[in-house]
Amino acid sequence: MRLSQYFLPTLKDTPAEAQIASHRLMLRAGMVRQSSAGIYSWLPLGLRVLKKIEMVVREEQNAIGCHEVLMPTIQPADLWRKSGRYDDYGPEMLRFVDRHERDMLYGPTNEEQITEIFAEAVRSYRELPQMLYHIQWKFRDEVRPRFGVMRGREFLMKDAYSFDLDGAGARRSYNKMFVSYLKTYERLGLKAIPMAADTGPIGGDMSHEFLILADTGESEIACHRDFLEMSLINQSIDFDGDLQPIVDRFTGKYAATDEMRNLETEKALGEDLVTARGIEVGHIFNFGTKYSKPMGASVAGPDGQDVAVEMGSYGIGVSRLVGAIIEASHDENGVIWPDSVAPFQAGIINLKSGDGDCDNVCEDIYRKMRNLGVEVLYDDRDARAGAKFADADLIGLPWQIIVGPRGVKNGVVELKNRKSGDRDELSLEAAFSKISG
Asked: What is the model's pLDDT at position 245?
């Protein structure tokens, strides 16, 4: 992509309404623009990042045998009346009446919709277990939307739901999602810590929130230091096998947030205690038969008797993750994207646009990188070098190939790594090798 032809409306000054780093940088980097309070248009750069996060989430859901569907944003109120939640949900739900005088709503979540789909399609225990997910826009009418996409009214969510015959099956589905979430966040360049969450009247131990560490997090968390080193990234995982040992390893040490914290336990940890701020980026929860019973989601069991299925719900805030990644990875100059979600893998900075030799070298690099399948943004604008450097850092390109008259004369380019700030003069072949990993 040539920057001279790209729609990238960056801002030099920080908008007054932006209170946290991700909101400031997403506006300044030309990723989003506010449409109305808590509702944003996603511009080309921001949409590229959003789609990459969505792709990672989708791949990890598919890997555990969770099947993708797509449910509507608009739902009939009668579904929610059937579950008993329509009147209880509160003013965050956007309710309206269509032209046929039918009560409708803009879905804030999808438990009712997916339960109806399952109840109409599955009749026997032999068809279990089932896991279904979708990635769809949601709307909750927050009284005070703030912090950009971190707490907006319209947001993109991955919602997954599991259906099992009994508690043991529900545990297996829960464990699959638990491990899948750990892998998902690691692929996104995040250190996510699972924290036991309140299960309400359901009880049990099958509810966890996943939080990443960031100075601007909404929660104060405490955990054992070992969590900072735990990883699954290079571990081969059999999702059809027993995942309980992995779940036990990631839940066996102390980790708690806000009202779940235990000060005596924390005191006993001594130097092994880490306290920080955290941002919730996912929540998994088993709710038993809370929806299956009132909505008739039952199957014929092995003895021929009808059994209300055990259900679980598993959410990841896809659009929220864009802001969360920035909160966890930025500096005073701009965003520092993990490679897996960067909008472009590399940028080419022509220090002297209009100079024949510099232009020719840049065009050659641009052509070769595209042929190699590298996503590259070529800054071919007639602008000052300082402005080009500032924009490259602001939008967070992991690698910057800097081409100037002196380097062209010596047969080298300068390669800058955005995260470390390291700069090296290299041959073009050596630069390609570093970028490709």
From this structure: 96
Q: What is d(CA 322, CA 238) in angstroms, rounded to the nearest whole number? A: 29
**Cα–Cα distance measured from residue 71 to residue 50, given in angstroms and rounded to the nearest whole number:** 19
Whether 112 and 76 have beta carbons less than 8 Å apart is answered as no
* pLDDT mean over 277-283: 94
pTM over 0.70: yes
| Burial of 315 from C-beta contacts in 10 A (0-12 / 13-18 / 19+) | buried
Phi, psi of 26 (to 5 degrees): -65, -35
What is the spatial distance between Cα 183 and Cα 213, in angstroms, rounded to a whole number? 17
Question: Using one digit for the tens of pLDDT, what is the confidence trace for 103-121?
Answer: 999 999 999 999 999 999 9
User: Which phi and psi (to 5°) does residue 321 adopt?
Assistant: -65, -30
Please state the three-class secondary structure of the chain as a single string.
CEHHHCCCCCCCCCCCCCCCHHHHHHHHCCCEEEEECCEEEECHHHHHHHHHHHHHHHHHHHHCCCEECCCCCEEEHHHHHHHCCCCCCCCCCEEEECCCCCEEEECCCCHHHHHHHHHHHCCEHHHCCEEEEEEEEEECCCCCCECHHHECCEEEEEEEEEEECCHHHHHHHHHHHHHHHHHHHHHCCCCEEEEECCCHHHCCCCEEEEEEECCCCCEEEEEEHHHHCCCCCCCCCCCCCCCHHHHHHHHCCCEEEHHHCCHHHHHHHHHHEEEEEEEEEEEEEEEECCCCCCCCCEEECCCCCEEECEEEEEEEEHHHHHHHHHHHCEECCEECCCHHHCCCCEEEEECCCCCHHHHHHHHHHHHHHHHCCCCEEEECCCCCHHHHHHHHHHHCCCEEEEECHHHHHHCCEEEEECCCCCEEEECHHHHHHHHHC
Q: Is 140 exposed, middle or buried (0-12, 13-18, 19+ CB in 10 A)?
A: buried
Give residue 202's pLDDT band: very low, low, confident or very high (50, 70, 90): very low
Measured CA distances, 142 to 303, 364, 384 (Å): 47, 50, 43
Phi, psi values for residue 429, rounded to 5°: -65, -40
Return d(Cα 431, Cα 365) in angstroms, integer. Answer: 10
